Amino acid sequence: MADDPQSLLQQAVALHQAGRLVEARAVYQRILMAQPRHADALHLLGVIAFQTGEHAQAVTLINRAIAINPNNPAQYQNVALAYRDLKQPQEALAHYARAIALNPAYADAYSNRGALLQEMGQWEAALADYDAALQHNPRLAEGWSNRGAVLRYLKRLEEAVASCDQALALAPDFAAAHNNRGAALHELKQNEEALASYGRAIAQQPNYADAYNNRGALLRDMRQLDAALADFAKAVELQPGSADAYLNRAPALRDLKRLDEALASYGQALEINPGGDYLAGYYLHTKMMLCDWSGLDDTIAACAAQIKAGRPVITPFPLLGLLDDPGLQKMAAQNYTAAKWPRSADAVSWRAPGEKQSEKIRIGYYSADFHDHATSYLIAELLERHDAARFELIGFSFGPNKDDAMRRRIKAAFDTFVDVQGSSDRQIALLSREYGIDIAVDLKGHTQDSRPGIFAARCAPIQAQYLGYPGTMGADYMDYLIGDATVTPAAAQGDYVEKLVRLPHSYQANDSQREISSRIFTRQEMGLPQSGFVFCCFNNSYKILPAVFASWMRILKAVDGAVLWLLADHPLAAENLRAQAVAQGVAAERLVFAARLPLAEHLARQKLADLVLDTLPYNAHTTASDALWAGVPILTCIGKAFAGRVAASLLQAVDLPELITGTAEEYESLAIELARDGAKLDVLRARLAQSRVSAPLFNAKLLARHLESAFTAMQARRVAGLAPGHMDIPA
Fold first, then answer.
1. In what order do the strands lie in the sheet with 634-637?
2. N or C end: fewer C-beta atoms under 10 angstroms in the chain?
3. pTM for the model
């Protein structure tokens, strides 16, 4: 009979499967009018409610069906989907578990539970569910694709690509699988293949916002910034409510020096996702680059509280410039490293203590900056001065392959130079093992373009960080941090996860061959007044905090006709600093801004300055040694953390300890005294001119011997079967 419930159910199911949901709903409702306890009709009417976005109604209808027939696993699976969309994950998990208990081979239930666990960040559990789903239904393309995404998060990248390939073998037009494959290839640094995968995802699904966003991130890493911005714009257009595209777009804008637009992009991401990982820190750091200090004290206090609570609020590097608190810096670094670069499961030393060693100690130096970059300017001569009879140097370059003079010089300094830009972290670690590296030296730490994953995979039996990052990495797989008695005093050992190696003078390498241009700069062409004292600070703008700036303004007000010469990072930063000066009673024109110049000319123009004023809590580092090399004294106030003690280390190593102060009051008083007492400043300049050629700071050969003593001591401890330990290297 046409009105028989079974016949009506078959009719409704046929309409439902054909996508004619309105007609199917009407037939299900006819069945329920006749049989209000018809479980299948209730269940399938609930499925239509779910499909049309009525998730609460779906839960009500399907739960009524379950009460009538508690033995149908499909009902539990489908109501779990509705609970998931209602943001009730525990209810969803309980119903998935019931579906699987009733049907242990229920592939869809395993797969969908895996997707929920993936959303919840329970990656290992999600992987187990995907594996179970695929065991029962190996042709589940979505399961293979999602499994690939989880494996990528777990850093099992080659397996992730293989899983996505399985999905594509079953469904070549599956856009999500192409996208997930591209993401894994991106992390494997196989950029061209990743680009092709994203392109296929977009070709299959032209409105795929996530694929545009991911491709934009890849293009940004490939330094194709305009193309990256075009992809981010498309992602935002397609999915304006997603924070990810705004978040990824901001660094591309920052790299293009469009800092105000970068700040706005971070702000849009924050508005959508206020609790996004590290997002508040990115936003704050960009504000600091623009010298926008609005609400700064409250923001820093909130940031500190979040770090103490273990929340991912800020990455370690920006924190160095905000708080002179080494304990909090350590906590932030530990949180960050544990979340982003935990020790790899198989990251163990592969050579037993006491085994026969090679004739030379093999030192690997790892960096993205082996080109025209501040790190290379510092370290070039040190590499050249290593004892070739006792040490073999291998350089691992994972930065851009720029054919500039500094890269050619750096390459020549190494016995072997390996371009690993296109290799994954794990591949680089395995390659390091093949080379037999004894001591791996990370020159990046937590700075831009760093690769901590290389060290998380244990690329050498001994791993040390040096020069690039002034603080602890917070990683238990980093054995040593190389510093000195000033930047890393014995009393501060508890602030570091690494064991401290203290060199006898300054830890900072310097190049005595750095050229200073013969060009004679005039005050007029630099925009400086013809007369009057010139205070100078060429630090990056994010290092300028309100308290330091207030000290500078008090100094200017006390020294008639003096000006402050600063680096022109961004027009808005200059505008904000001038406004702050005026607010503190100093004329805007007493701040003079200098454009960036090539290094040799930059060093030459610094001679126009009378005295460099340092920043705190993040001192001048390379900029401090630049000033001293150019013959200009620097006045510093020593802090508690590594980043705030570097200038003091440099001043000790050029025999100018009297320029190290301990309080803001001392700092201001001495700056004013030196500006008023030209004879006293002349004496300091004369001493600097003499010590520049005789003191340890610019003696790369001496530093090489001390560093080699440190390497030898590290190796001796390992060969003796001793764990890493703190050590002081004798002069």
1. 591-594, 563-567, 534-537, 611-613, 634-637, 660-661
2. N
3. 0.92
